[in-house]
Amino acid sequence: MATKTAKSAPTSPSRSVNPEEVANFSALAETWWDPNGPFRPLHKMNPVRLEFIKGSLCRHFGRDVTATDALKGLRILDIGCGGGLLCEPLTRLGATMVGADASEKNILTARAHAEQTGLEIDYRYITAEELADAGETFDAILNMEVIEHVADIPSFLDACHRLLKDGGCMTLSTINRSAKAWLVAIAGAEYILRWLPVGTHDWQKFLKPSELSRSLRDSGFKTSDIKGMVYSPLSGAWSLDAHDFSVNYVALAEKA
Ligand SMILES: C[S@@+](CC[C@H](N)C(=O)[O-])C[C@H]1O[C@@H](n2cnc3c(N)ncnc32)[C@H](O)[C@@H]1O
Ligand SMILES: [Mg+2]
C-alpha cells in the first residue's frame, strides 16, 4: 500500500493581498492628492502622522528632530504607500524613500505626483511579500493605515519583519475595534459625513491595540510606543494623545 504523504497547503507568495480591497483603492487612485476628495481624512491626519513618524524615527536613530534633513541617510520603505502622501514629506526630510503598493494605479498616481513636485522617490508596484522575497532591506518601515486592509496579518507582518534591518523600527497606524470606532469611522465618516466611500472600512478588520501588539510580537517585533490620534471637531485638527486609543492610533515597533 502506498504511503500517504502529508501535503501542506499551497503557499501563496502574497497572502496579504485582498483583491477586493486593492480594487477599491485602484478605483480611487486618481483622487489621492485631492485634499477634499475621498482621502481627505488622510490629508487632515498627515501633520500628526508626520509628527509621530519624525519624532519616533529621530529618537530611535538618535537624530536631531529640529534638523531640516533629520532623516538623511535612512532608507525607508512605505508599505502600502497609496498615492505617496507620506513618501513626499519624508523625502523632503532627507530620507531615501521606497514606496510600494499592491495597486498599480496608485503607483502611477504617486509617480506622476513626484514628477510634478520634482522629488526623487522609488515607487514600486509590488506586494509586501514579493519585496521581502526579493531580499531588500530597510532601516525603517512605515505601515500606515494598511493592516486593516490586508487579507492575512501574519503573512504581512512576517514580510515586514524580513524587510527590516536588525535594529530597525516600523511605525504603524490603524483603527481600534471599538463601539466608538464603529460610530465615528464607519457610521460618521462613511454614512453621515460621506468623507469616505461606503464600504471603505470593515469594522471586523479593525484591531484593538492589544491585538496589534500580540500580532507584532508573534512576528518578532516589540511594541515600544502607542499613542492615540484624536480628532477635534471644533478645530478640525488631529492631535496625538497618550491615553485615548478609542478610535485611531499609531504605534512604534522595533525588530526584537
Ligand atoms: C488606506 S491606504 C493607505 C495609504 C498610505 N499608507 C497612507 O496612509 O497615506 C492602504 C493601501 O494599502 C495598499 N495595500 C493593501 N494590501 C497591500 C499589500 N499586501 N501589499 C502592499 N500594499 C497593500 C492598498 O492598495 C492601499 O493603497
Ligand atoms: Mg483604512
From TrEMBL:
What processes in GO biological process is this protein linked to? methylation
Keyword terms of this UniProt record: Methyltransferase, S-adenosyl-L-methionine, Transferase, Ubiquinone biosynthesis
Segments of skewed composition (Polar residues):
1-17
Going by the entry's taxonomy, the superkingdom of the source organism is recorded as Bacteria
EC id: 2.1.1.222, 2.1.1.64
**Binding of S-adenosyl-L-methionine, residues:** 49, 80, 101, 144
Write down the SUPFAM superfamilies for this protein, in alphabetical order: S-adenosyl-L-methionine-dependent methyltransferases
User: What Pfam families has UniProt attached to this entry?
Assistant: Methyltransf_23
* Reactions mediated catalytically: a 3-(all-trans-polyprenyl)benzene-1,2-diol + S-adenosyl-L-methionine = a 2-methoxy-6-(all-trans-polyprenyl)phenol + S-adenosyl-L-homocysteine + H(+); a 3-demethylubiquinol + S-adenosyl-L-methionine = a ubiquinol + S-adenosyl-L-homocysteine + H(+)
Which intervals of the chain are annotated as region Disordered? Answer: 1-20
Q: Which InterPro entries match?
A: SAM-dependent_MTases_sf, UbiG_MeTrfase
Q: Which GO molecular function, any one, fits this protein according to its record?
A: polyprenyldihydroxybenzoate methyltransferase activity
Give the family this protein belongs to, as stated in its UniProt record: Belongs to the methyltransferase superfamily. UbiG/COQ3 family.
What's this protein's function?
A: O-methyltransferase that catalyzes the 2 O-methylation steps in the ubiquinone biosynthetic pathway.
Q: What name does UniProt use for this protein?
A: Ubiquinone biosynthesis O-methyltransferase
In its UniProt entry, the species of origin is given as Emcibacter nanhaiensis
